[in-house]
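step: validate -> pass
step: tokenize input -> pass
step: predict -> running
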Amino acid sequence: MSVLVIDVGTTGLRAAVVREDTSLVGYTYETLPPTSPFAGLVEFDGGAMREAVIRVATAALRHAGAVRAVGITSQRASTIVWDERTGEPLAPGLSWQDLRTVGDCIRLRSEHGLVFAPNQTATKLSWLMSNVEAVRSPHARAGTVDTWVAGVLSNFSVHATDSSNAAITGLADHASLSTHEWSSNVLHTLGIDQAMLPHIVPTMGYIGDASALPGAPPIMAMVGDQQSSLIGQGGIVAGAAKATFGTGGMFDMYSGTVTPSHLARTTNGTFPIVVYSRDNTLHWGSEAIMLTAGSNVEWLVNDLGLLPDAASSDAVAASVQSSDGVVYVPALIGLGTPHWDYGARGTLLGLTRGSGRAHVVRAVLEGVAHRGADLLEATEADMNLRVERLRVDGGMSRNSVFVQALANAIERPVEVCRDTEATTLGAAFLAGTAAGVWDSLTSATSLIRPLRTVIPDSPASARSQWHEAVRRARGWIPELSALDF
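step: predict -> pass
step: emit ->
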């Protein structure tokens, strides 16, 4: 018994078939990067995404054979609108990275007391309705990427999103999510017709048939990518946590079934999330965000020319025993959790005449590791739960110097995921459990084995110096530091 997973990221998409023993076959990947017509604007081509989804899914099935179920996981909050009659997009898709609605977020908070971030769906859809006439058609239908993929796979007989994705949009609140509904107050304020929006369905369970694929297998799960990664690394018990270190960094912890009092940012800069839902039960967690992680290594490669490629950062950093007092704060576009300071900037401190390339490279890796510790500490403080061991995935999880620095900074073991991206496993576990491939999520996640476990080998004595470095990096552009979403 097998599960087909379609995983649509920010710059590409993949499909793979997951066997009952969690092995992956038929892995197929295509790049599909967004475009940026102007600074701050990030768009994607929904038509090109539709064609790529069918290609990668069909290729995976051709290689691996028939499947019992389909799971969908994707980037969250990116927004697309299409004509229900033709399935054709009515405007460019707006990526979660798109910042064109910053002013709208500020105005809505001032005038209506509603707090939105520009990366959420709410103001993106409102902007499209205000600026693209076709989007105001009574035949217009809207959704996030998971909704679009489900529509494509079902020949548009399915118009749905799940609780984990809906909770990120800004169009629902903790109360409405409990009944799988959108917030009437938000829709009224933004002038959004509920008929445009997808039905909110449980993450696990029958959603519709993927009739566009050979054999028309049932779609049995839809889930946001970060929540899928958490589940794919066994995050289904209170205090279980994972961190994904890709271009940016995301820290997610599972907390349980107790509904939070609100979905707004919490005291220590984290956000409540729906990890997944089954029937009428929502499983909650918390998310902390690092605005830049691997992009700091890309900066060393592409802008400073200190490295030939990102992979070489490991060996270069390992050529010295320490950064020799050099400290780097990875704030190239500001700081996320716990500070949320968009005016903070990347800061390199402690340089001497003896500081060399290897010291700077090691400082950059250690700086990202310290930011990972910041996210863990903020989440533990907000959730009143302790993370006993941290599981990690993403491209930087293959960097030995970085992972060791992370273990040292958090002073507990770090388990490296066998797959660079755990999203595929998470979506497979959800869909497969719903379809009977595994008898429970517990059974499915019990099959996970880390690639390796890294134990702290030195005390986190540099944390006090790190906090001083962050203090110096903050507020560099006061106008941006004053922004609050």
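step: describe -> The chain is about 35% helix and 20% strand.
step: cleanup -> pass
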